[in-house]
Design a protein that fits this description.
Layout lengths: L6 H28 L4 H9 L18 H14 L1 H21 L2 H13 L4 E4 L15 E5 L2 E12 L6 E7 L9 E7 L5 E6 L10 E12 L3 E2 L5 H16 L1 H20 L1 E2 L2 E2 L4 H30 L5 H25 L1 H4 L5 H9 L8 H13 L14
Parallel strand pairs: 1-4
Antiparallel strand pairs: 2-3, 3-7, 4-5, 5-8, 6-7, 9-10
Helix pairs in contact: 1-3, 3-4, 3-6, 3-7, 4-5, 4-6, 6-8, 6-9, 7-8, 7-9, 7-11, 8-9, 9-11, 9-12
């Protein structure tokens, strides 16, 4: 049991691991090879409560903490980081954002079907010209009586091609910059709201990513999340929580790489010795273990901080930066330990390495996250950027 886990949290981890071994391991390779999204599996995740760990039971969730949400993602990521990414976008970027920022009517209307997996959620922020510079988005929302009309394009949207409902950010007061953004709940099938393109990726295959087009899309004012022009607070709080929770995906990759590498080093023989006896292999294993445990500790601190205050950003930015870079590095080290076998697609290591790279790009690139940490350390006078964004 990782340090600091309660008995309840360990029970959740055990249940998630059992489900993953029974349901996810067998489809992970197909997801990657065919870029196939297992919709039925999403429903079964919902049946277990794994799609809405932080959502209260009255809306169909488990009513647990961000630590619980991270535990579920870590276990899924060990078998399929791609599935973990889609679950994270659904359960954290969409459901938890709605839970924290929606009203009672919106929660009751949307959350039960999201918690069950009957519907899939996505968050639509990134645009072709607004990735890291998220607040420069160009999507517009013009009000006409009791409705808004949304027009624009969203790019690199996780779950975009399969989502039934999306949380869409748009400018309601373009002249006010970051303080003229609002958030809207937009359903699939709304006239003018279409998937313009499904994108083909290096990794995280099976987690659908797409470009969404909005052409004069009518959205009732009752589907605006929070107050008009108050979207920047929703955006930034959601981004801080996202970084903390999604750190569980590279942690899961690291844990799987370490377990497989230790087992292989115990068994594989070269030059009359098991390779675990070689100091260079031992150094790789020790480094992998150390960075896994450091990533867990950083993640735990970040989860506790955003649970206390979603506006806290330093710990979550640092945690995801460290863990994502460590997972990319050590997935490649795991391939090196396994030699030619590691390079073959018969093992999941090459897939884990491809998947790991995205976590250095999404939720704000590593460079942007370092900037967030530094500006937070420096304090007033250095944080002249209202937001540092992310590709989703």
């Amino acid at each position: 049991m990782p340090a600091g886990r309660s008995g309840e949290e360990q029970d959740l981890a055990d249940a998630a691991r059992k489900f993953v071994r029974r349901e996810v391991v067998s489809v992970a390779d197909r997801m990657d090879r065919e870029d196939w999204f297992p919709r039925d599996l999403f429903r079964r995740l919902g049946d277990q409560g794994f799609l809405a760990p932080t959502v209260p039971p009255e809306y169909g969730g488990l009513g647990l903490s961000y630590r619980a949400q991270a535990i579920v993602l870590e276990e899924i990521a060990r078998a399929s980081p791609a599935l973990a990414l889609s679950v994270g976008a659904h359960s954290n970027l969409f459901a938890d954002n709605l839970l924290r920022n929606g009203n009672d009517e919106q929660r009751a209307r949307f959350l039960p079907r999201i918690a069950s997996g009957e519907e899939i959620g996505a968050l639509a922020l990134t645009e072709p010209g607004a990735g890291s510079d998220a607040v420069s988005l160009r999507t517009r929302a013009e009000r006409h009586g009791d409705d808004y009309e949304l027009t624009g394009t969203k790019q690199f949207i996780t779950n975009g091609p399969v989502a039934d409902v999306a949380l869409v950010y748009a400018k309601t007061a373009p002249d006010r910059g970051a303080h003229g953004i609002s958030a809207f709940l937009v359903r699939k099938g709304t006239p003018g709201f279409t998937v313009a393109k499904s994108l083909d990726k290096m990794g995280m295959r099976g987690s659908p990513t797409g470009e969404l087009a909005l052409e004069h899309v009518p959205v009732p004012a009752g589907q605006r999340l929070g107050a008009e022009n108050a979207g920047i607070g929703i955006l930034m709080g959601g981004l801080n929580v996202e970084r903390a929770v999604l750190t569980a995906i590279p942690v899961g990759i690291l844990a799987e790489c370490l377990e497989r590498s230790v087992a292989y080093a115990r068994e594989r023989e070269q030059f009359g010795h098991r390779i675990g006896a070689f100091q260079m292999i031992q150094a790789k294993l020790a480094g992998m273990y150390t960075e896994l445990e450091a990533s867990r500790l950083l993640m735990g601190q970040a989860l506790d901080e955003v649970a206390a205050d979603p506006a806290r950003r330093r710990a979550s930015a640092a945690a995801l930066t460290y863990a994502s870079e460590a997972s990319t590095r050590h997935a490649l080290e795991a391939i090196q330990i396994h030699g030619g076998y590691g390079y073959m697609r018969d093992l999941p290591l090459e897939r884990l390495a491809r998947d790991a790279k995205l976590l250095e790009i999404g939720a704000g690139t590593s460079e942007i996250r370092r900037q967030v940490v530094a500006r937070d350390l420096l304090g007033a006078g250095f944080d002249d950027d209202p937001a540092a964004g992310a590709s989703r």
